Amino acid sequence: QVQLVESGGGSVQAGESLRLSCVASGRISSCYYMGWFRRTPGKEREFVGRITWSGGSTSYRDSVKGRFTISRDNAKNTVYLQMNSLKSEDTAVYYCACGSTMLNYNSWGQGTQVTVSS
């Protein structure tokens, strides 16, 4: 079992930055991938990006490339999502998740709200 706790959400103006954190505990060894996802009311949850715990390899959805950066601190069991140049369309609840494969995420955090005003 893996427990994930996100923090760092808030309300900002377009163009500003936020950094989300996700602290993991429990069987972290089962989390080959740590993913960030987001959900807006009335829309499907969408993939934002992911990182591997071991090598730190990252991947992002096209709409956030060059603006968002995922990093991890293995000593703190924490994954970060640095979001720069935020846009109103980035408004969503952001979730981190633990994945044993690229497509199989089976532990989720409670989510943190990000609101970007234009």
Written overview of the protein:
There is one protein chain. The protein contains no helices and eleven strands. The protein has 118 residues and is mostly beta strands. Strands 2, 4, 5, 6, 9, 10 and 11 form a seven-stranded mixed β-sheet that branches. Strands 1-3-8-7 form a four-stranded antiparallel β-sheet, with no helix packed on it. The protein starts with a strand and ends with a strand. The mean pLDDT is 96.
Mean pLDDT: 96
Q: What general form does the structure show?
A: globular
**So what's the oligomer here?**
single chain
For the biggest sheet, the summary is: 7 strands, mixed
Content of β-strand: over 45%
Task: Provide the structure class.
Answer: mainly beta
Order of helices and strands: EEEEEEEEEEE
Number-wise, the strands total 11
Top keywords for this entry?
118 residues; mainly beta; four-stranded antiparallel beta sheet; 11 strands; 0% helix; globular
